[in-house]
Amino acid sequence: MSAAELQQATGGEWREGRTPARPLTGIGTDSRRFRDGDVFLALRGERFDGHVYARDLGHRACALIGDDRGARLWHDLPLPQLIVPDTLRALGDIAHAWRERLAETTWVAISGSVGKTSLRSMLACLLEGLGVRVAGTSGNLNNLIGVPLTLLEVPQDAEIALIECGISVPGEMERLSAIVSPDVAVLTAIAPAHGEGLGDVHGVAREKARLFSGLREDGWIAVGEGVRERLPESPRQPLLAPGDAEHVRFTLHGRRVTFALGDERTEHELELPARHWAANMALAMSIVRRWWVGRRASAPSLRDMVRALSGWQPLAGRMRILRRPAGPTVLDDAYNANPLSMQSALDTLRACEGHRVAILGDMAELGEKSRAWHAGLDVHGIQELVLIGPQMRALADRHARARWFPDADKAAGHLAGRNWPAHSVILVKGSRSTGLERLLPVILGGEDGHAV
Q: Going by C-beta distance under 8 Å and a sequence separation of 6 or more, which residues neighbour residue 44?
């Protein structure tokens, strides 16, 4: 972008009219991972002020972006300085301007209470397997900082950009949707999550549905199971949902899943008897088929799509399978948890063969109904139950055979050196705040195990 385009996108002013001498090729917000030659944009938070770090980048940045209060620290810095009313908003505005430039790219915004990262990774695997140039979210960059930074990394030749959008308080989704301005909006699921900020499931549905607010006029929506029924109102844009003629159907028997679309049928064997994996695969294939129409000579067959998806592996912390010789099989689902994802993980464990162990940590940010959500988890068919955290005490009180520990460190002492029964399958799941990932090497005997 040129200096003039950056100014127009943000509504800012170049201090003393001084602008960079060359086009701007990148925006950085973290001084620790700053790329030489980029523009440094100083973000402000409750516990930090990025403006104070600009001096350390004086010999590396080509320009600075800051607000009027913070830029008072820069009066003696020789770099061009763009002064904006709000740097977080400016970051989103710059990202949106870049998105508008990439008019040939299809922008897909993905949200939902559960499954958004798994669906995004499935879509990427599927599209790349079909020869499509894909860009999008990496890691957990899905908030008001991460989404703009993700957009700014999308290259000009990307055919499709998969942008994950996560929220925790009202108002965030509408802003994210305005930044991405998606051609396709996807909601995977609506369930109790972030109850402290979003309220009950109706509040979650209302805020998640605001993903549609920035949808292009000719855009369309895809939703997962049960979402259409929970939406606060019917969207005006075309909607693709399970049960529609264009949506891939599936049936699951053990680990064998059969996909069907029209007269096409094909089978695939999952690594786990995970119904939510099959449902996400069906949604991913449905989205790709719908997107493909009119863009290439002919849509991929169901068989071709399943073949492309056969290379998909879950990311760390999201039902990743870990094994070591002569040891237990561990289902690493420790990245996060809410009632729907927790119950789905328990249902998957229950469908596994062997000695089933559930190591469960607190589900955070559920609000006033937290105790009820924890106590109501269905754990029948699980041979061993290890519960961690003050909220999980509610479930422990209902199951005398459960072992309860106040935190992961205390649980580690119980699990260390454990000689697990033959064919043990161990689920490890909880919200990030419980730190259950620290238990993985303990369970695996000091080893990380290998993913399969």
A: 50, 51, 67, 70, 87, 88
Whole-angstrom distance, CA of residue 180 vs CA of residue 165: 9
- Supply φ then ψ for residue 341, to 5 degrees: -70, -35
User: Are residues 305 and 365 located together in one domain of the fold?
Assistant: no
> Which of 109, 111, 122, 118 has its CA nearest to residue 317?
118
User: Does some domain include residue 359?
Assistant: yes
Residue whose tokens read 């062997």:
354
Report helix, strand or coil for 445: coil
Give the model confidence (pLDDT) of 388-429 as tens digits.
Answer: 999 999 999 999 999 999 999 999 999 998 899 989 999 999
Among positive and negative, which fits the CA dihedral 5, 154, 101, 91?
negative
Structure tokens at 85: 């009313």
Cα gap 353→373, rounded to integer Å: 27
Higher pLDDT, 121 or 369: 121
The verdict on 224 and 327 lying in the same domain is no
Question: Which among 423, 221, 193, 233 is positioned nearest to 327, based on CA atoms?
Answer: 423
First to last CA, the chain: 43
Element (H, E) at 146: helix 146-152
Instruction: Please give the Cα distance from 112 to 132 (Å, whole number).
Output: 25
Structure tokens at 289: 């088929």
DSSP string covering 346-389: HHHHHHSSSEEEEEEEPPPS-GGGHHHHHHT---TT-SEEEEES
**pLDDT digits 0-9 by tens, 239-292:** 999 999 999 999 999 999 999 999 999 999 999 999 999 999 999 999 999 999
User: Which CATH number characterizes residue 140's domain?
Assistant: 3.40.1190.10
Strands 27-28 and 39-41: parallel
CB 314 within 8 Å of CB 118 = yes
Domain range holding 378? 320-451
Helix (H, G, I), strand (E, B) or coil at 17: helix
Looking at the structure, tell me whether residues 410 and 270 fall in a common domain: no
pLDDT at 450: 47
Q: How far apart are CA 452 and CA 438, in angstroms?
A: 20
Residues 299 and 354 both lie in one domain: no
